[in-house]
Amino acid sequence: MRRRSERGDGNVGCIVWLLVLVLAVAIGWKAIPVKIRTSQLYDYMVELSKFSAQAPPEELELRILQRARELELPLTKEGVEVQRIGDRIKLEAHYAVPLDYPGYTHEWSFNHVVDRPIFIF
Q1: What SS3 class is residue 20?
Q2: Which letter, b or e, does each residue of 57-88 get, where b requires 16 or more Cβ atoms within 10 Å of its Cβ?
Q3: Could you give phi then psi for residue 96, rounded to 5 degrees?
Q4: In this structure, how many other beta carbons lie within 10 angstroms of the beta carbon of residue 19?
Q5: What confidence tens digit (pLDDT) does each residue in 63-76 have?
Q6: pLDDT tens, 4-22?
Q7: Could you give the CA distance from residue 48 to residue 44 in angstroms, rounded to a whole number?
Q8: Running DSSP on this structure, what letter comes out for residue 52?
Q9: Positive or negative: CA dihedral 7, 12, 14, 18
């Protein structure tokens, strides 16, 4: 026989875990698409360093900025740097993406650096 005072004792833990799950889904809902887009920009920078290393640095900067615009990333000209140092090429992109949550905005910073040797065929 059950006592009346024991009825519903396990519900508080269930509610807490449900709130944690909702919070995790809300964070993932905003963060995962941003992470995918930033990874696409980094992959593009790697491809540029492999196949377009002979292009002038200014052209590479413009290509990186154009790709960031296509991916809707807040990259500015000041955040892009392309250097040719001897037989190496170095591409950098520094920017922050704001993630807006109810009552809080998180600035997620990204610093992409690709430093590779230039292979001349």
Answers
A1: helix
A2: eeebbebbbebbeebebebeeebbebeeeeee
A3: -130, 135
A4: 10
A5: 999 999 999 999 99
A6: 555 555 678 888 899 899 8
A7: 6
A8: S
A9: positive
Q: What is the pTM of this model?
A: 0.82
What single letter denotes the amino acid at residue 42? Y
State which amino acid sits at residue 115: D
Residue from 66, 56, 49 nearest 112 by CA: 49
- Is 81 strand, coil or helix? strand
Pair 27, 100: CB distance under 8 Å: no
Q: CB of 80 within 8 A of CB of 65?
A: yes
SS3 label, residue 74: coil
Pairwise CA distance, residues 42 & 73, whole Å? 12
